[in-house]
Design goal:
2 domains, 25 helices
Amino acid sequence: MLGMVAGIATSGGFLIAGEACFPWNRDSEMCSYQSFLISTSWMTSGLLTLIQVFRFKIKGTPFYIGTGLISVMGTSFTFLPLGQEIVASGISACRSNGDPRCVGGDCMGCGLEAYGKYIGTAITASLFEIVIAILPKKIRDAIFPPVICGIALMMIGIGLIGSGMKYYGGGVFCAQNMLSRSATFGGPHICNESGEVQLAFGAPEYIGLATSVVLFGVLVQCLGSPFLKSTFIFWSLCFGCFVSGVSRYHGGGTEQKYWTPGKVDAAPAVTFFWAGGFGFVPFSFAPEYFIPMLICSYVTTAETVGDVLMTCQFSAISETEEVNKRIQGGIMADGINSVIAGICGSPPNTTFSGNNGIIAISRCAWRSAGFSCGIWLFLLGMIGKLGASFASIPIPVVGGMVLQTFTMVFVAGLELVGKAMNRRNSYLIMVSLCFGLGVAMEPQVFQGNGVASYFGKNLDFNYGLWPKKMVCSKFPTETVTVTAATCMVGTTDLGLDSAKCTIAGGSYKAAVTKTVPDTDCVNKNGFCCLAYDAGGLMMRTTLLIILKTPYAIAPIIAMILNFILPVDKDGDDMPSKDSAEIAAA
């Protein structure tokens, strides 16, 4: 539980609801549920862990639900970026469309409505896993070979490590818009996610806090017991909280704290599903995000296949048929549990790859430990003050923690890829990674604004592979002068108005103006279109999300190459011998 709790909260509602907390893109209602959604993610993961670990057979069928192994469930990192984008875009759309709910910059209810679209679309996409679970093993193996599972895990890690570094430096939003705002106003966005302290991205104070979390983890690995080593993420987070709690920033003649008590004071002592006014999420469906959600479901299924396969190895389950049953049950439980998670108001769940790291370090694969973990997670979620405390952690401390958890996902994928390495797969991996890593490093190659989400919307509207203005059906209008007014005396324009021109004995001709569409988005922060073509916008959103998301484009390329690349018949396709074997030969 200590090894999973931080990652579950981070990939749950904490960062998604955080998208509604910015003054320039705000939904105070959605923002207020940030603490509650953390508690919900813990309770949901605890409940779904019990289902996954218990394992039971569906009567009258050969299918199982659950792995029957120590497979702890947690909110999926794979869906996290989509959740953030949908909520942020929903609030932004309300502002640009003049929604009456937007009063004084606060679009109350717009983010919550977008969250309902996210959950509803995710539930629909989660049915994909249930379908995959009932397919014959031969088909499932063809769709999810280890090399694709490994690439998917690596790209999830790569895609999230970038976000981890932004938290590390002070916050995602101020990182993404540092340069674009500077070009307009001559200074960067100030990060405001660390209590009273507000500094520019990459300030030494932020870097120091985040680094303290990482260094404490190193200390634990050097001196700690196996228990401490397997739960180092939790203890590192605690140390970062301690350092930030006793630290003060002295700026402008005042003492500023990294922690503020507002969220903790407002949170109830005990909470439960659908409590605190949250109610049932108003589910709806966002067709423009459905295909990206399906890709996320594919990726998380690949993650589950790899995760359960490794858990079987650690649990001394080697018989092929039994391993297949565990994988089938794990995928089935992932799909069903993700639907249950959505009903509870939490993002989709999956088996956590961190399971295997903890099993490897602790040497404990006892199923009772999984039941215990699920119960502890559920009880932890019921304590509302704890969820609020997590939501109050300074963002650089969160950065030092999540940077390590995100990288653990990458390492898990690297291990799977290493086992599948051969001549054919080396080429497949190379082509997949060149695009996956490429868009992670240069996201603006396909979308003009890259990741700049505020002032960069001007670029997104005008530039890129598919500029957003190409799907705008109604532009705002502006009045332009076609011919300027003139006051002619002979061949000389005196430049006088009508009255003065008459006195001067000139010939006055009024200016000619006309109203034209304003198709250029200059310093309007993306609010440059009154109405979009729904179909075109859906197609554009789908294509660009696939192209700019590492864990979407890389697994798709890998899957295509896996089907079209022939298997060598001369033995070159076999895993290569290491140097020791070659020397012995």
